[in-house]
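Aim 2, interim progress. The first record below pairs a target sequence with its structure tokens.
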Amino acid sequence: MRVNILNRVVVSLVISGALLMGTSIPTNAQENQDKQQRKQQRKAEQQQNEQQQAAQKQTNKQQRKQQAQAEQQQQSQQQSQAAQKQANKQQRQQQTQADQQRAQAEQQRQQSQAAQKQANKQQRQQQSQVDQQRQQHSQVDQQRSSNDRQQRVQQQQQRETQYRQQLEEQQRVTQQRTALLQQQRRMAQYRYQQQYWLRLQQIRIQNARSYNYNRNSYFYAAPNYRYSRGGSYYETNQYGANLLRQAVNYGYEQGFRSGQADRQDRWQSSYEDSYAYQDANYGYSGYYVDQSDYNYYFREGFRRGYEDGYDSRNQYGRYSNGRYSILGAVLSAILNLQSLR
């Protein structure tokens, strides 16, 4: 009985379990489906939240970036405003300095004009004084020039008179020397002396013509050269300087020819015994310089020319175009002419 009861109970339990299982299967499936939907919904919500958060982050990032840009713009604007203020301040300072400089320049200009006016006034006064002095000097110079011209005229007259007085003595000495050379049978020196005398007469005629042509110019020509002789200084103009140069050159040429003649005659060397050296008037006609000055420089050239001619050398001069002439450096050393201007 108990067994039956147990069986019945078992059967009932089995049936109840079957019924429960039958009813629980669809219930579990529904629950699983709901769970799945809720899970998907949560996932979708989570994704949506993540997207919203990402979007919010992006928005926040953009907002921060925009804020930073705005702050930078504001800062840049503030800096620009500060720079503009500084520039305006500097501009005002520069304008002030420019105004001050213009004021100073104007003041300096006015002072310069005043100083220039004063300087012009002083210059006019000085020029007036200079003009007065020049006028006074001109009057003095004219008087001095007139006196100098008068003195030169007197000197020239004395030179011409003295020279004419010596011509007769010169002719007498020439004749004596000619006779002596013939006695000594110094034929080369005799021929040279004859040529010397003949050429001397020709040069006198040429000098007279030249002097007549330049006479007035010579009297008005102021001294522009200085030379020294015997420890004393002398002044002369261009005409006198040219004649002194000519004296040295003529002296060298005649000395060379006289030296050659003595060598050809086999006569002992002695330039002081030569008639041309003793006469020393070759090329002189009483014009422009004193006879003593001309004689001195003629003999200086003659001595050097005689040594070259007697020794057949060209130490002091050279031969060119048929003439013997002294070297320029030697000529300058002998004369030592110094310009006065």
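The second target in this work package is listed in the same format:
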Amino acid sequence: MAYADNVESPLRRGWSWLTRLFRQTASPPPYRPEPQPLAPFEQALDEGLLIARHGVMLAVKNRLILRALREDDSFDDEATAEMIDEELARAADEQRANAGMIIRARARAGLSGGIADHAHDYHLIDSGTLRRRENLYEALAESLDGSRSDPEFIADLTERARSAAWKDIGANVVARLEKRMVSFADDPDYILDRQDRLRELLEVDLPALEAQAKDDTA
């Protein structure tokens, strides 16, 4: 269709309504992250090390709980120190793996100019930040490896993991006892059988414990 003076309509022949819609819709602006100030390297390292060591303590605590409940093993300083060494080594390996991922990301970023389209779209401009992150992961791995030969740190972590484990175990025991007390209260024969249970405690259980104590001290 033509207008006066042979001016063609902007809605050219062959254009669908969908094509015209997209031509008229402005494309979203590219991703432009605001630059964020970076914490000093030593501060970032200290905070990362604190988080990593806390994760090691939680892992050791959970292993102590499983050891006590599933394997019925008592607490042992030497065994706990071995657990700590294993978890520290595992945490250091994780940090080295993180550094490896950053190295690969930095290599790809060095081949790409421009500005990021999303938060994980790295370009040449991000190389310095990626290098810093790589150095941070490597420093964390080195610090965690160094902690493995620090007797004061091992002793402190051993005590903290033990305390946390027995606290959780105690809470579990209390919860089980409360559940049993509720079931006892609902038992109509509980009061009637109380005298028999007390007599069994005095005549059977306590003498057995006394005899066992004498055998242990003999």
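The mean pLDDT is 76. This observation will shape the mutagenesis plan for the next reporting period.
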